Each structure stands twice: as C-alpha cells, then as structure tokens.
Amino acid sequence: MLTGVTVVDFSRHLPGPVCTMRLADLGAEVIEITSFPVSDHGQSTYAAGWEARETGAFYLRSHRNHKSISLNLRTDEGKALAFALARQADVVVESFRPGVLRHLGLDYDSLWAVHPSLIYCSVTGYGQSGEMYQLGGNDLNIQAVSGFLSAVRDGEGKPVIADFPLADYAVGLYASEQICAALVQRSRTGRGAYLDVASGDLLSSWMGLHAILGKCSDPMDLGANQKERLAYQVYETADGHYVALAALEEKFWLNFCRAVGRHDWELLYQATISRQPEVYEDLQALFLSRTQAEWSELGMEVDCCLTAVEERENWSESLYVTSREIAYTLPYLEQKTRAAASDKSPAWYTDQTHELLRKKLHVSEGELGRLQKLGVIPATPS
After folding, report:
1. Domains of the chain
2. What percent of the chain shows pLDDT beyond 70?
C-alpha cells in the first residue's frame, strides 16, 4: 500500500527502526543512514551476538527490508549527502535528542525550506518540549514516568520489570500510524507535516483513562480487583507450565464450570481470591491435575477464554503463531533454520552506500572514490 513512498531513516535503537520496518512491510522504500565509522549506538543496550550487525536477532527483527547507506555525518560532505537524500524523500524519521539534527543542518526547518511537502517524524521518549525533553531515557524510564509501571506489580506490590520493551515497540507502531495519517493529509492538501511522537505521551495517554476511572469509580471495580478475580488468573499445570483463564463474563465462567463438572462454582464468577480462598485452592489443584496441552485442548473445545501461556523458546511452534503464519514474517527464524545446516549464519545486513548514491544522487565513480578517501563513506563491500 505504500509502494512509491521513500523514507529516509536517521533513527537509532529500537522505536524508530520498528516504525520504519512497519512502513517497509507496507511497501515503502526505507533508506537508513547508518554511522560511519561504525558507532556504538545501541551496543551497550543490545549487546553481543544478538546485536551483531549482519546476523543479530535484534537487527533483523527491527531493520528488515531496509536499505543502508553509511555516512560520516561529522564531515561537511557527509551532511550534504544526507541532506540531498532527505530532500528527495517523502518521509524522514529520526530519534536523536532534540536539537542534535539542527546542529547537523538536518532538522525539519532546514528541510522544509526546500521541501515543504516533507513529512518529518521525530521519535523520542519525552518529546520536543516540556520539563524532561532533554533527559536520556530507556524503555523502563518511559514506563515509570507514564504511570504504566505502577500498574504492573508482583505479589508484594513491587513494580515488575518486563522482559519485553513495551514502550519502544508501542511508540514505533504509533509513529508509523501517524506517518500514514500524514501521508493521507498530504494526498489531499499537498502539505507536509512535522510529527512530534513521544513514547511518554503514548503510555501516559493509555494510563489517563485509568486515572479518570479511578476518580469516578469504586477502586474495587478497577484493575486491582480484576487481578483478584478467581476467573481471571494464571494457573500452573501438571507439567510445570501455565494457562490463562480470563472468564470475566458470566457466560464464559459458566461454560468453564460446566466443562470441569463444578456446578457449585457457577455463582462465583465475580468472586475474588481474598473472599474465596478455599475455592482458589481448589482451582489451583484442579489445574495441577492436567497438563498444559490438555487444558489448551479444553479451551479450544469449550468457549471459556482458556489459553496456554506460550513460552518464548516454543513461540514459533505455538498454535496461534503457526496457524496465522506469523513466524514466516520474521526472517531471523528462517535464517536460523538455514544456518543450522551450514553452521554459518547468513548475512542479512548489506551496506549499499555506493549503489544507492549512484542511483539516488547520480554520484559518479570518481566522486565516490574521492569521498571514500576522505572518510565520508566506506569502501565497497568485498
């Protein structure tokens, strides 16, 4: 659907590349501007093998379908080439701290002066204004300041750090949505747009609804009580795995009770652990009587909102992922399979600096050689 749209991507780390990856999945041509010489952007956060530039899982997961140009933006020539590429683009995405690209002459105002139909998206943690806009921050910080982290607690009431970088992925998807909306507007009016997209804004807006509900409702009606519901729990199974029962609606709870032969529980669909501890113990014992596969089979047969908690190591073989063919959209899984046969991981990342500069900016071979000698661009990959 985005065939014919060109995106120049200056972003680093995870949110920006997730955004442009989604645009590439929709058909856009994404040209990412990578650092030359190679910098340590992201290396401390996504370390070692899985961050390897050519074969690492993180790189493949967030940079698929990207084309890559390596430029030394510390040089005037490198900045000029980046500017020339951006002024030809439909969309520019960046994720530096506010002011960095202005210093390089690659900010929205500079590009708008020569390309007023450009859509320019800045993806940051705290936005382009406010008290915190210049602070550094990672996914955990965004979850914390937005209030999201306070809503995810363990049994002792301590906020839980998730393995999954929720804010990074969420804002990447949100940024791609905003860019698509801006492309629609431009098709109607011819106007470009500047998009200030902050992960802190996004997660805070999610929490805003809960804050409003907290002022208008009995707290026992909100999520804290929901996590206490017998019908809304994670239960361990006989083989040491887990299933999720989310029979919040009465019809689902009745279906579950009848399927397991416990008609005496039918009136307890709103009951909580603290008020019915003996029933909670009985439920725990019940789920420990069968394996995860057996409970999953029951959940498929009976409409009661009962599903397996899929483990990460078996994710690609899970029922939902295989039936929807989701794993086939992730090149790393396919490459791991092919690599197992050869004991050598195939390269995914390829530097296309020379090819793209020839094609996009009509840079001659002689000029490419000069830029290479000056340290503006790398040598042609062997």
Report:
1. 6-205+351-373 (3.40.50.10540), 225-309 (3.30.1540.10)
2. 83
